[in-house]
Amino acid sequence: xxxxxxxxxxxxxxxxxxxxxxxxxxxxxxxxxxxxxxxxxxxxxxxxxxxxxxxxxxxxxxxxxxxxxxxxxxxxxxxxxxxxxxxxxxxxxxxxxxxxxxxxxxxxxxxxxxxxxxxxxxxxxxxxxxxxxxxxxxxxxxxxxxxxxxxxxxxxxxxxxxxxxxxxxxxxxxxxxxxxxxxxxxxxxxxxxxxxxxxxxxxxxxxxxxxxxxxxxxxxxxxxxxxxxxxxxxxxxxxxxxxxxxxxxxxxxxxxxxxxxxxxxxxxxxxxxxxxxxxxxxxxxxxxxxxxxxxxxxxxxxxxxxxxxxxxxxxxxxxxxxxxxxxxxxxxxxxxxxxxxxxxxxxxxxxxxxxxxxxxxxxxxxxxxxxxxxxxxxxxxxxxxxxxxxxxxxxxxxxxxxxxxxxxxxxxxx
Length: 414
Hints:
Blueprint: H1 3-6, H2 8-33, E1 40-46, H3 51-63, E2 71-74, E3 88-92, H4 96-121, H5 130-139, E4 147-154, H6 159-190, H7 197-203, E5 207-214, H8 226-253, H9 260-288, H10 296-321, H11 326-340, H12 349-356, H13 360-373, H14 380-413
Parallel strand pairs: 1-2, 1-3, 4-5
Antiparallel strand pairs: 3-4
């Protein structure tokens, strides 16, 4: 009864299972458990060039200068939002310093006017100072301009990061507003000056911050999760197609080693299957489930490329290892799904450099993201497709190599 438990093979099997559990738990949980917002690229533009705006820029850069800082200020580039160089743009608008200076002048005028008025009430105001009182009262009247900051959120780049920045960036402006207001309030209190509610309202809101969204995530795109889910659809479509076609080609080949003709047939049938599955996928997601797809032909084309590349990768593994290679296919997917739902800046160094940077799914997701959300076009689509083409080409070459190597080995055995 205890023979199996006593055998070394039993404990080796348990150790192997433990290793597999460790790998898959890291892929599914470990990667996600180490996520932290750090070094999110945000462009900072100073269109004012005044003394006060330069001071604000220095303060912002100093505040987020550490390696673990949540924001990394970067230089703005042409088409930077569309080409996904940064997640947001903070722009200090022209006239920023001048508006702050005029507000400060208003505070000084209020103080001078109040003090001279008190002297006038007690008949202690010299005649020569009457003109100064009139000028101070005139300066204390009317409205004052607000300094302006404009924030653009690159929502289509990553919905999660966009939400974080939509909350965090206006807070920076609010903190600067609070600093200015506290200084003015302290100055007025020291000089025993009390302003009317309307006058204080103007001086307590020195900065106007506007927030708008670029590359918006449209309705019916699953709150920005559509690209990741479409990649999952493409991967599993390719997975099923590769297994069924692989079995069919091996049955027709009649040998353990595929001929070059059989591999070519795998490629041709894969192309046809990819276009067919992408078209069917579009009919389901757009027709049945109302997914918002701006350009159907572009969408079907990108999905076809993604499915075909994934088909080549999985078929390559099957050609070399047969169904014993199935765990490799699953492992690649589990590692990918652990990182795709996060922006790369939120991942640990290992997860980003060791997993995110090389999984083919992330390039597919980038291309699909562009067609769904970046309607002005993005240069990153070309680079993403180029890298996918490299993955597919290497897989295709290895597919031909598998048949050659297996024939060589079989010939040696005979």
